[in-house]
## 1
Amino acid sequence: MSSQPEPHILFRREEIEATVKRLAAEIKQDYQGKHPLLLGILKGSFMFMADLIRLLNFPLEVEFIRLSSYRGSRESSGRIKVVQGLRSPVKGRDVLVIEDIVDTGLTISFLLDYLWKRKPASLKLCALTDKPSRRQVPVTINYLGVTVPNKFIVGYGIDWDEQFRNLPDICVLEAKD
Ligand code: PRP
């Protein structure tokens, strides 16, 4: 991208809200009464997590882990690092991972392996967006919001070089003419 990129709306905030509501209904049906641990991957999932849990009116716990795969550019390094680890034990817990986007799948497969080693009672994945055209490793998404095209996505928590996380809509980043 030669010039400064600018965001164009792909999913408006109203569509995001409806999608989050649908996901919350699906999650509620499966997890009500189970006291699950909802585990968000920072930083990208913070906004999705905040909206989702407000719709889940049953006992649950919230935890975050901070992973990093992109290094200040739009291309994945392919190396995943735990930048801030778990503070809650996952052994015996019903763990639901909350992710903003599954792209190559490298981040989430790293995390699922990391979590399975800690012996949760169950482990599932909820992803707001999925970019299957970029997948390098297979990933099962148990609760999926929307599929996105093979373009650079920003907004609603998702960044480009730490920018645009604050956009309330999910946008495609395109070169300015
Ligand atoms: C982004 C996003 C996912 C991951 C998906 O995180 O939030 O966690 O990349 O990419 P992948 O499927 O190709 O691994 P990033 O590492 O950019 O950190 P961030 O959440 O702090 O933005």
## 2
Amino acid sequence: MFNTTFIKFKDIKDKYGHLTPIESKINIPFEIKRVYYITKVDDGVIRGFHAHKKLHQVLICLNGSVKIKLKNPNSEELVELNEPSVGLYIGPLIWREMFDFTEGSVLLVLASDYYNEKDYIRNYDFYLEEAKKVF
Ligand code: T46
């Protein structure tokens, strides 16, 4: 889907375990200004239901798995993150819904900017209006 892609990071495995390095503007297509993570999501909870006007993000499921529904005005895709060496890039004007977090799952998010509620589009009809200008 336009404006989303998977990013494969290095998975350095030795007898001591696995290590995945991530470097701003090297493995991630933007400068990382913010990091947050989502944990302890109860069964049946669906998060998201928004798009961003300008924000770029990469989502990485460090433990367990989570499903993500991605939408633009023309198409819809369902992806699952379950591997700490795989990131999901989501660019501007992509609607997202995250669900089926498994017990103990940890969803790490790297973001291109500081938190700004004004960058969120939380109304789906307004989202469609804005996104149709671009897609
Ligand atoms: C996204 C998906 C993947 C902050 O105060 N600072 C922050 O940096 C963030 C991300 C959130 N918040 C506050 C805003 C809300 O009061 O934390 C609360 C929960 O945020 P929200 O309902 O937006 O969480 P999600 O899981 O629906 O969405 C989050 C991100 O907000 C969003 O940018 O793309 O994860």
